[in-house]
Amino acid sequence: MAPFVGGDLREKVENPVKFQYGTGGGGAPPNTLNGFDTALLIDICRAIIAAEAAGKLKAARYKKIVTQAHIIIGASAKSGIKQLVYALAGYSPSTEEVIAAFKLYIQEEARKYEAEFPNELYVEWHILYEIPVPDRGKPWHFKHLTVNHIYHPLAKSSGKLLHLLRASKAKDGDRQKNYFSF
Predict the structure, then answer these.
(1) Same domain for 104 and 140?
(2) Which of 44, 115, 36, 114 has the alpha carbon at shortest distance from 76?
(3) What's the DSSP call for residue 6?
(4) Quick check: 2 and 9 in contact, CB under 8 A?
(5) Structural domain tally of the chain?
(6) pLDDT tens per residue across span 8-35
(7) How far is 126 from 149, CA to CA, in rounded Å?
(8) Which pTM was predicted?
(9) Domain limits at 83?
């Protein structure tokens, strides 16, 4: 991460803002706490995303952190634009409105990173069909089970929806695109 942090960000992290909290009571001095500029979170997320783009965070242990950085950046961008428009219009939302809107943006951004199907489905298929669990990935059987148990019965289409999804995928030419993205 060091090459992606930069001197400005490093300086902010190494020199927190010190402030006093509380009255101390009983003649004791108030507590001194460390704080950071709120924009530091966005700077850290940008550094994480830059490291990912450079291929430095490929290990599985970084996946959750990278995903969270993308979610925070996306939600913050939406929230920031909304607050800018409100300020220009002269509207001052309540604290509760701001928090509720940000939570909604976080949920929207997080949906992009959800799995197509829950892992519980595959665990049940392993048990039900007595399919051995491979060392990595998923067994090839799951492709056929997904088609037969999910896409064919979907919306009682008798497979017509699956054919529509396949045609859409073929038209785009993106073999990596998931059917559910349609």
Answers:
(1) no
(2) 44
(3) H
(4) no
(5) 2
(6) 888 888 889 888 887 766 777 788 888 8
(7) 14
(8) 0.57
(9) 2-111
